[in-house]
Amino acid sequence: MHEARQYERYVGGSPETERLHTERLVHDLMRVQIKVRKRSGAADIARTFHAKAVLGVENARLTFHDELPGDLRAGFARPGAEYPVIVRLSNASGARRPDFSPDLRGAALRVQTGPDEAHDLLMTSFPVSHARTAYEFVAFAKAMAGADSMPRKAFALFVKLPLTVGRPTAARMRRNVHAGTRHKVRSLALETYWSRGAVLWGAAGPVRFLLRPAPDASPAPSPSRTDPDHLRHELARRLGAADIIFELCVQRYVDSGRTPIEDGAVEWKESDTPVIPVATLTIPRQDVDAATARATASRIEQLAFNPWNTTEDFRPLGNLNRARKAAYEASSALRLGHRFVTEEPRRNAVLGVPLRAGFRALNRFVPWHRLPTRLGLLNLVALRQVLRRDNLIDTEIHQAPPETQPVPAPIDERLRLERSYDGTYNDLSVPKMGAVGATFGRNLPPVFRPDLFDSPNPVTVSKRLLHRDAFIPARSLNILAAAWIQFQVHDWVNHRRYPTGTKSVEVPLPPGVTWRNSPGGPLENVMRFAENQGVHPPGGLAPPALFADVASHWWDGSEVYGGDRQIAMSLREPGGGAALRLEDGHLPLGPDGIPLTGFRESWWLGLSVMHTVFAREHNAVCEALRQEYPHLDQNRVYHTARLVVSALIAKIHTVEWTPAILATEAIEIGLRTNWQGPPKNWLTQLGLWLFEAHSLTGIPETLPDHHAAPYSLTEDFVTVYRMHPLIPDDFEIVDHRFGHRIDTLDFNAVQGAAAEPLIRKTGLANALYSLGTAHPGAITLNNYPRALQAFERDGEVIDLSVVDLVRTRRRGVPRYNDFRSGLHKPRIRRFEELSSDPETVARLKDVYRTVDEIDTMVGLFAENPPKGFGFSDTAFRIFILMASRRLQSDRFLTVDFRPEVYTPLGMDWIERNGMTSVLLRHCPELASLLPRTASAFAPWRPVLPTRNNSEDGGG
């Protein structure tokens, strides 16, 4: 790498700046591919360039000369060495045009030098590129996309191109293209092909390479003017009679003037750097029209060539080459259906600008939630567009500059039909996107201020603003809603902690306050708890504000199924059965008394209920699949059931839980639109057609779209889902048949190892009924569960409210005023603007010196929410962005949400079921108690106790 950098200069002055620039160009190139397909009428997406193959063979040989110069002996380039080669010869255009059309020609070689090592050599039949840089290259491609007639070509070359790159550059590009394409090609066996860009050649430094025909190659007839495939036919005749021989040659780097690295439009002249033959390429005599040869050619068309499929000894050099890595990866991923481009209709792009501006002006006076329903929905569409544009920040560590790689292995076909255990290969073009270990993204730029970690003191903040003096209920919900969101969060997010006692956060306590940091431990004047493990990028951040997710970011049911293969297999029936292990309908216990399931932390009765229900649901789906499709093996049954249950969970969250906690007509319509499309009324349909046509169907009928950044959940998302106030301090266990109280327990009596004996003793139906008829806490200030403010976990005692505050600060999430401002809400200037409650305002003033110091969680809890909302409008803005993103990015909830993957039975199961039907499948005795016209997360009908039994019920 050091050898390469001495020759290179990066766009924008740094590898990272150039990477971002290249990323934008890559998106433009993919749109070119889409446009070419549309204009050409092709059924499939072709390669961005070199779309039409003329020859594809796997049995060529590359043999290095015995007299190879000493300094050119590097890596696989050894005297006398011989390697098998895949050869693809092609026309250079991005459209499949007739062979007699003016065009350049291309050669792609894959030299297999070992079991795990190959080198892709890519060349074109003209010594220089029409473009100096990647920017010019893409500008030319955009201008020429779809220019399939002479008038369109002329307009592209003489009008569109000069407007983009300037007249002098456009003129030079036209000259190069004309010079390269005016040559009449008789045979691809008689063409010379140049790399045009430089590569490193071991200790010899940069070279350009070329492939030229052997001196004794037989001539070819004049090119046909009528046969669209005359070049293929000529090669077929030639190979039917004899081998085709080429010489592989190199030209050495001299200096930056005569042999530039960064300028692809300058020829390395033979007078400055003589051509040195180094190897012979032999394509053996064969019948390319035989069935086996046609099958071979078809396989080669599925390959993705890339000059970066090589080793560091042969690293590509220069801006054009550096851009090619990302460009070729994206192009091939799009062509092979591993990556997708969602095209925005022009009317949406044009009309969206005044729409967003209009609502931005209107919202200064009237917030979206006070508008009429349909206008409010359109306001939310505009807001989501702004958030997608401005509030998706990529935090993944990318290669900058790019690095060489082995040829990527073919994707395991099973991964097209099943979720991986760790979330890899959801996006087939970027296998690690969203997987276990992927970093949390950002919705707002981080504000990392170690000097403010303890200011104001988080213990003081907790005691004054979070501590529950009296329970404040959320009367529109039941406790199942609290259990559900924790069940979901455990699927989505989990920061890795250092083992207790190894690396801790120390929070100084206010004067006169002490704390026991371990059960039975001494009183101390600091509060201590395990630190999160950060991600240290190369060259890194010190201290880091970047963290990885121990769970996968996808909605894949990992809380039920586990986040790696070992855990997942251990939860299945012995012998690799499809069903999950249950003991008389309950989860098996681990040695610590906590049930064995995908996620076992922070366990309590509500989680036990959710995990039990959905483990049973998985097994019910498995049984239905076995009955309907007896030919399916156990592994396919398991993975299909997992897909079905995970999608059902996503549906329940989208169309049941969220409308329950955000109980407004606009939100219910919006969320149902996310899943199943908008209401069938002409006004709503017209509005979406004009401004966001992609919303005319439910997200499952769209293509995956990551919008402005690779998919991940975010630190800001984690912050707004801190909903611990939902947990009550005590629980009444009630018999669902007679309404009699069985027991009244505090939180400690229903959490940890105590939860599972309780649910087994009382029964699942009674546990569900007890939680379904009781209210959770409201998400507001001074309503934090008391038990969680002295909570034992992993050998430490923590105040979880303090931990929540400290974690948010140390992860760089902006304080509340910056947070709401970054989400396009006006900043507050006075404490009175945050809350209408005088006592709350007084407490805020007592703790914080200015409104800009208010902690994010405190501000979100204090904010007066819209009518019907269970949490603040500021938190809702993260939700509106990320709720649709969790569906939209997921291959299994979009393009692969189809019967071929889920089976027809699986699709029907998801369509017909919801939380109520799931509960009744496993506890049919609750049928009369669930709400008739609301979701299962609304309060259930309580059964009145009968007179002839004692008040306590006897259990």
TrEMBL record:
One of its GO terms (molecular function) is peroxidase activity. InterPro entries: A_dioxygenase (IPR034815), Catalase_sf (IPR020835), Haem_peroxidase_animal (IPR019791), Haem_peroxidase_sf (IPR010255), Haem_peroxidase_sf_animal (IPR037120), Oxylipin_biosynth_metab (IPR050783). Keywords: Dioxygenase, Fatty acid biosynthesis, Fatty acid metabolism, Heme, Iron, Lipid biosynthesis, Lipid metabolism, Metal-binding, Oxidoreductase, Oxylipin biosynthesis, Peroxidase, Plant defense. Its cofactor is Ca(2+). Pfam families: An_peroxidase. Gene3D superfamilies: Catalase core domain, Haem peroxidase domain superfamily, animal type. PROSITE patterns: PEROXIDASE_3. This is Peroxidase family protein. It comes from the Bacteria. The keyword Membrane does not apply.
